[in-house]
């Protein structure tokens, strides 16, 4: 099946990898990119550059998409305040999702976080939980939340708690088994690969689904093994 896709957050760590996959995918015939600035290097992508990442009104009548990807997010340090973080990680994500729905998107895959919950003590995780709750009620045919744990190799815009976690994980990663596997660092490209597969397949049947870090790794690994066997 050929898809028309739309992505927001294509300049972030996960978004950059996802944009490349979408740009190269044979089953994506048209690609729209919501961005605040022009992005170089994309071949297939049609860029819609706006300050608020919305689809301009004049484009809504000339475009349709069936799958959407949202890779937006910030840190408290970047945002400057808890309210500013919420405006990006929740309010902006919901606004972008509504904009995607208006152009026909029926299935959306969104980057969230391990531990996201409206009952979380952490403001960051509570905000992600509120975002998930609101998106689940927007009327999409399917909403899938990718909930990765620590992202391996991230050097920029890393939160203080992530620094501590990554240092500890350097010692205990070999011991993380069972449910604790979700705390293993995961490569951004693996998150992106899993998101692409989740959007373009019927792997998940649930109307709303949260896919944890271990599951994201497994989906990406299976795809890599399948690709390797095809090349042989």
TrEMBL record:
This is NAD(P)-binding domain-containing protein. It comes from Vibrio hippocampi.
């Amino acid at each position: 099946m050929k898809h028309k896709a739309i992505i927001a957050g294509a300049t972030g760590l996960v978004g950059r990898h996802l944009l490349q996959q979408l740009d190269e995918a044979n089953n994506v015939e048209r690609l729209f990119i919501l961005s605040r600035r022009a992005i170089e290097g994309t071949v297939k992508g049609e860029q819609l550059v706006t300050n608020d990442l919305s689809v301009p009104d004049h484009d809504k009548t000339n475009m349709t998409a069936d799958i959407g990807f949202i890779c937006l997010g910030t840190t408290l340090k970047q945002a400057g305040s808890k309210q500013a973080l919420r405006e990006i990680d929740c309010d902006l994500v919901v606004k972008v999702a509504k904009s995607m729905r208006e152009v026909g998107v029926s299935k959306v895959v969104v980057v969230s976080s391990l531990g996201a919950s409206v009952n979380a003590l952490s403001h960051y995780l509570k905000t992600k939980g509120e975002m998930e709750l609101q998106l689940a009620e927007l009327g999409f045919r399917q909403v899938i939340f990718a909930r990765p744990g620590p992202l391996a190799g991230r050097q920029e815009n890393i939160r203080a708690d992530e620094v501590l976690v990554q240092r500890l994980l350097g010692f205990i990663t070999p011991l993380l088994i069972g449910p604790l596997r979700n705390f293993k660092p995961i490569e951004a490209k693996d998150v992106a690969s899993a998101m692409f597969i989740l959007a373009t397949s019927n792997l998940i049947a649930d109307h709303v689904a949260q896919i944890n870090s271990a599951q994201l790794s497994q989906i990406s690994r299976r795809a890599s093994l399948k690709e390797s066997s095809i090349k042989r």
